[in-house]
Amino acid sequence: MGYQTISLGLTLTVPTASTRNWTQQLLTGAWEKISEHDHSGGGNGAQLTGAAFAPNFGLVQAGVQTVVGNNQSLTIDFNGGNIHLVDATAATGTLTITLSNPTAGAAYKIFFKNPATALTVIWPASVKWPQGQAPIWTETLNAVDSVDLYHESIAGVYYSDWQLNYG
């Protein structure tokens, strides 16, 4: 395996682009120490707090958007934050989602509060699902499902994943 070593007072070995299965390398050695402590240059070794992150990496909840009625559209504007809650408990039929104002490399989470009956959610073509399978929502009133999105700016797509039925 090919690696590139960077030394800035702490040595971190980073796999080269052609290396496969490099996750274990990052999880061992110094990575846990790096990810848990403040590296402001002061050498204080303090643990990271939410304020230590740059604004684009902090997660901000945008609030609750309520969808009611049959065959509705919803725009989720990421300028409002990285975390969104969609209350779809009164929605029926089809819900068409539009995603706007993504930041390159940003991660987003959308929680859905579900109706008691089947709701078809139509996502933009730019959202790519694992094995091409979009979520099939939980059909229990007030059940919560979620979608994670990562916006990749070069191809202009969202790589996504989903979790169902937070009980």
List keywords for this structure.
two-stranded antiparallel ribbon; 2 helices; mainly beta; seven-stranded mixed sheet; 167 residues; Jelly Rolls; globular; 2 domains; single chain; 7% helix
Task: Give the overall pLDDT as a whole number.
Answer: 77
Q: Rounded to an integer, what's the Rg over CA atoms?
A: 20 Å
Q: Indicate the percent of residues in helices.
A: under 10%
CATH class of the largest domain: Mainly Beta
Report the span from N to C terminus: 43 Å
Poorly predicted segments: 21-39, 47-58
User: Main β-sheet, in a few words?
Assistant: 7 strands, mixed
What is the succession of H and E elements? EEHHEEEEEEE
Content-based structural category: mainly beta
Q: Helix tally?
A: 2
CATH level-3 fold name of the largest domain: Jelly Rolls
Q: How many independent structural domains?
A: 2
**What fraction strand?**
over 45%
Question: What is the name of the CATH architecture of the largest domain?
Answer: Sandwich
Shape: globular
Number of strands: 9
Which helices and strands occur, and which strands form pairs?
Blueprint: E1 3-7, E2 11-15, H1 23-27, H2 31-36, E3 61-77, E4 83-100, E5 107-113, E6 119-122, E7 127-128, E8 144-152, E9 157-166
Parallel strand pairs: 3-4, 4-5, 4-6, 7-9
Antiparallel strand pairs: 1-2, 5-8, 8-9
